[in-house]
Amino acid sequence: MPVTRERMAAVLEEIALLLEIQGENPFKVRAYRQGADVVKGFDGDIVALAEANMLTGIKGLGDALRDKLHELATTGELGFHKNLRADYPDSFFELFELEGLGPKKIALLNKELGVNSIGSLKTACEADKVAGLSGFGAKTQTKILDSIARLAQAATAFRIDVATLAAEEILEELRRHPAVLRASVAGSMRRAKEVVRDLDFIVATSEPAELTKFFSTLPQAKEIIVLGDTKCSIRTEAGLQCDLRAVSNSQFPFALQYFTGSKEHNVAIRSLALKHGWSLNEYGFTGENPPTVNEESDIYKALGLDFIPPALRENRGEIEAADAGKLPRLIEWENLRGTFHTHTTESDGKSTLAAMAAAAEELGLQYLGISDHSKSSPQANGLDQARLAAQIVTIANWNTEFAHEGFRLFAGSEVDILKDGSLDFDDELLAQLDFTVASVHNATTLSEDEMTKRIIRAMENPYITMLGHMTGRLLLRRDAYAVNHEKIIDAAAETRTVIELNCNPKRLDMDWRWWHRARDKGVLCSINPDAHSTQQIQFIKFGAEVARKGWLRREDVLNTKPLAEMTEWLKLPKQRR
DNA sequence: GCCGTTTTCGGCCCGACTGTTTTCAGTCG
């Protein structure tokens, strides 16, 4: 059984937890945790490198972790890890999911009561054995039971579309409060992560205690988790935790920067501040002659850095780039001139062709690519050859009758990639289309190798314009298919196939972590909403945010081309694109 | 365990809040 990147990261994370339980040096614990983060985010085939024992010169992975990852990659196991966890069942690790319980308390529960799973903890609480432990009490015991109940039923992560709606509502309320001078969302939502675990809000006010009180009484506050003079956490009906920090107006830029994160980005920023002779925290700079700061950008400026857009703050090279004045000028959604991959009532869409066209134009777009499903997706009412041929005529007629200078429809298809990598339509029909999106919709359990070959074969077809939702993931619902991103990106560069950034918030696929690499290989991105209704065309706004997170510039995104240029580009043979 | 424009040894972020304490430990972000 070959070791995966995820397995390697999980092993390091488990080691961190187990060392923490044993009361090991917290910095050693952190080193393992950071090692796991490096493994997860590494840009390249880290498993192959570990196997070849070539993990050198990677920040955060020293000699010890290099050797351990090598052992894990070559033997499938790690002796150090095996020994550490010998005394604990798999179920033990569930305990860390519970709110309010950390390594110290879990270690004590384990030592005193033999607790080694959520089930045994529940039993112990119900038998009133937990309240008597030193450091525990009746309240803690009740909270543990609450937390167990919540974990059993509530969602712990939320998609960006769901979170955005909730955040906008709350921000609106905060901004309406007369004592609020400035208010912003911070945290992972501001960094445009694909899913968020909580929402963070920062307000500038001279009445912090009044604001935390106000926050705790919002209609959204189904439950108050903590309430103090400067911070408050609530939970909404849907189970989404929302945190508020109330600070003074002069502290606001610092709090905004600090709580936007990421943690890794902030660690690096703070150590840079130390080199300038200042200490930086969520309230300000301290030290000799601290710089004047009015806006968040002033913090970066004071450290000799260009302003780093929140989407990039993941400690993936943005600080070095900002230092060298080499941050990319990121795409903005207003740069988009059109979009592809949309569905109509002809397959499984909810809106007609005419309605989709009108909505796209309303949004300020100059073109819309229609790509209904193909016949191998009968569940989506996919079109056969005859229906597709008819749709091509319909679109041509629409363009003649209704289009005017400055807007047109492009005829396309979301063609199924069949199990062997062949396509659902023959080349003759594909050649009549303005564009095509090739996607996998069935036989999704192939091995990584087979799936990768299948997709690459489809990309080699001269009439395939772009690859649709590369991994097929449905966020929080279905895992990605096994695919080799590196190989597919290389093949896209080779065959001049565009890769789609499917910005339906259920997908956001290809994942943002891979775009920087794709861009550097010269692969173009198309920001496509996979819209099944007129409203969903607006998903391209999420798409632009995610593209920013992937370091993409205007010139890296196909659908920033204006209509005339786009029309010409689509006529070019692939190898000349 | 990792790292290096103070350092190959000695640092590595720290403040708010809660509950159990009677001055503080643990958790969280």
From TrEMBL:
<dbReference type="InterPro" id="IPR002054">
    <property type="entry name" value="DNA-dir_DNA_pol_X"/>
</dbReference>
<keyword id="KW-0548">Nucleotidyltransferase</keyword>
<dbReference type="InterPro" id="IPR003141">
    <property type="entry name" value="Pol/His_phosphatase_N"/>
</dbReference>
<dbReference type="InterPro" id="IPR029398">
    <property type="entry name" value="PolB_thumb"/>
</dbReference>
<dbReference type="InterPro" id="IPR027421">
    <property type="entry name" value="DNA_pol_lamdba_lyase_dom_sf"/>
</dbReference>
<dbReference type="InterPro" id="IPR022311">
    <property type="entry name" value="PolX-like"/>
</dbReference>
<keyword id="KW-0808">Transferase</keyword>
<feature type="domain" description="DNA-directed DNA polymerase X">
    <location>
        <begin position="3"/>
        <end position="314"/>
    </location>
</feature>
<feature type="domain" description="Polymerase/histidinol phosphatase N-terminal">
    <location>
        <begin position="338"/>
        <end position="419"/>
    </location>
</feature>
<dbReference type="Pfam" id="PF14716">
    <property type="entry name" value="HHH_8"/>
</dbReference>
<protein>
    <submittedName>
        <fullName>DNA polymerase/3'-5' exonuclease PolX</fullName>
    </submittedName>
</protein>
<dbReference type="Pfam" id="PF02811">
    <property type="entry name" value="PHP"/>
</dbReference>
<keyword id="KW-0378">Hydrolase</keyword>
<dbReference type="Pfam" id="PF14791">
    <property type="entry name" value="DNA_pol_B_thumb"/>
</dbReference>
<dbReference type="InterPro" id="IPR010996">
    <property type="entry name" value="HHH_MUS81"/>
</dbReference>
<keyword id="KW-0269">Exonuclease</keyword>
<dbReference type="InterPro" id="IPR004013">
    <property type="entry name" value="PHP_dom"/>
</dbReference>
<dbReference type="InterPro" id="IPR037160">
    <property type="entry name" value="DNA_Pol_thumb_sf"/>
</dbReference>
<dbReference type="GO" id="GO:0004527">
    <property type="term" value="F:exonuclease activity"/>
</dbReference>
<keyword id="KW-0540">Nuclease</keyword>
<dbReference type="InterPro" id="IPR047967">
    <property type="entry name" value="PolX_PHP"/>
</dbReference>
<dbReference type="InterPro" id="IPR016195">
    <property type="entry name" value="Pol/histidinol_Pase-like"/>
</dbReference>
<dbReference type="InterPro" id="IPR043519">
    <property type="entry name" value="NT_sf"/>
</dbReference>
<dbReference type="InterPro" id="IPR050243">
    <property type="entry name" value="PHP_phosphatase"/>
</dbReference>
